[in-house]
Amino acid sequence: MEQTKVRELQDVVIRFSGDSGDGMQLTGTLFSDTSALLGNGISTFPDYPAEIRAPQGTVAGVSGFQVHFGDHRELNPGDYCDVLVAMNPAALKANRKWLKPGATVILDGDSITEEHLKKAGFATLDPLAELGLDEYNVVVPDITSMTREALKETGLDNKAVVKCKNMFALGICFWLFDRPEDYALKYLDGKFARKNPAVAQANKLAIAAGYNYAANTHQFANNYTVAPAPREKGTYRSINGNVATAWGLCAAAEKAGLPLFCGSYPITPATVILEELAKRKDLGVKTVQAEDEIAGICTAIGAAFARPGQEVVALCGDGGLSMLLGDLATIVEYKLPVKIVVFDNRSLGMVKLEMEVAGLPDWQTDMCNPDFEAIARAMGIRGFTADAPDSVEAVLTEAFDTPGPVLVNVRTDPNALAMPPKVEFAQMKGFALAMTKLILSGRADEVVATAKSNLKHLRELV
């Protein structure tokens, strides 16, 4: 029997690509996280379609996720890929130009139909010949059919089963690059097992089926291994900016030897910060979710009066702050050491979103804000402004090192959506209707800006 050879590589670039609903972002993320846990250096690039709601199966609707992993620190996601996983002909056509010479291409054979080829703009029924892939290692497994076969005993309907085909592709890549399945299986249990254990089990079965297919087919001449990158020993974690902000506040209070109180009105991005702080009762953190921004800053004033010397933070929106300048005067008059963080998005964001999910284009929600830092200085409060992501950490550090009341004006993206804990179909339908009305009324540029600002939420929805 022919033996598969194991080759060691210094670095590899993989691009997962398919329709927006094929789960490529999740597939790429699970592969990336698995590689990071193995100690590889990684750099990733999520590639979303620029066209809004492009027809399924078209080149314009292709979504991708590229990961560059290696035995050293990776500083970029790579220009060209060693492996392309294409879930349909459109994904293959869109990414043909990004293949390295001799790259491996994995294409779902079930997707090579006349209908799919026509949607992708192929002139013939042979996409491999048309794209000139003779010099590449092309593997065409029937991913969709094999996923159905592997999950036939799960009791799930066909739609739910087909959604698992991205995990079959992930299983192939796990075998191809000697990656363990443990992290992905644990993630699937955490995401699905409690509410829908059948879905969790189906996705795990799909990974196993893909792994077994790759291990037993003779279409891969080699599988590969990439050694861990040298790095300092320690505990590493995946973290986002909002969680980092909350932890930074906890660390500042801890170093100052003071308890932390945060009163906040739930609005993006303050909501996530408040949620994370609420988890830290073990550190003595106290939080209050106020019904509006005026109440939020008033709880901070009350906390500062009740516990002199306590580290007190108020998270406010720009609209709320414009209505509570009298409370700033109270803070100054009594010399309360309240740190006020203003999320300045120049918009009545919640009002705007409420209109959009009801199917209405927003109207009169834009704000012409003053310079909040200048207003703070005029009232006797030290003011700072963070107008770029890479300046936030330094600005907040200086602000919390400053004695007495401080106002930090953080200029945020006005198009960032305040995502609810659970997105309902009626909300999506209303939002889609509102976006359509905006386009028809000549405001397509606003729709494009909104799409670009909220691509990160797609991972949460797929």
Content-based structural category: alpha/beta
First-to-last CA distance: 41 Å
Number of strands: 14
Shape: elongated
Description:
It is elongated and about 80 Å long. The two termini are 41 Å apart. It has 462 residues and is of the alpha/beta class. The protein is built from 20 helices and 14 strands. The longest helix is centred in the middle third of the chain and has 20 residues, at 197-216. The protein has helices at 24-37, 89-95, 114-119, 127-130, 143-150, 158-162, 165-176, 182-193, 197-216, 241-256, 270-278, 293-306, 318-322, 325-333, 349-357, 372-378, 392-401, 425-440, 444-453, 458-461; strands at residues 5-9, 11-19, 41-47, 62-70, 81-86, 99-107, 137-139, 222-226, 260-264, 286-289, 311-317, 338-344, 382-386, 406-411. Helix content is 43%, strand content 19%. The model is unreliable at 458-462 (pLDDT under 50). Helix 17 links the parallel strand 13 (382-386) and strand 14. The chain has a 6-stranded mixed sheet, sandwiched between helices. A 6-stranded parallel sheet has the order 10-9-11-12-14-13, with helices on both faces.
What's this entry about, in short?
The chain has 462 residues and is an alpha/beta fold. The protein has helices at residues 24-37, 89-95, 114-119, 127-130, 143-150, 158-162, 165-176, 182-193, 197-216, 241-256, 270-278, 293-306, 318-322, 325-333, 349-357, 372-378, 392-401, 425-440, 444-453, 458-461, and strands at 5-9, 11-19, 41-47, 62-70, 81-86, 99-107, 137-139, 222-226, 260-264, 286-289, 311-317, 338-344, 382-386, 406-411.
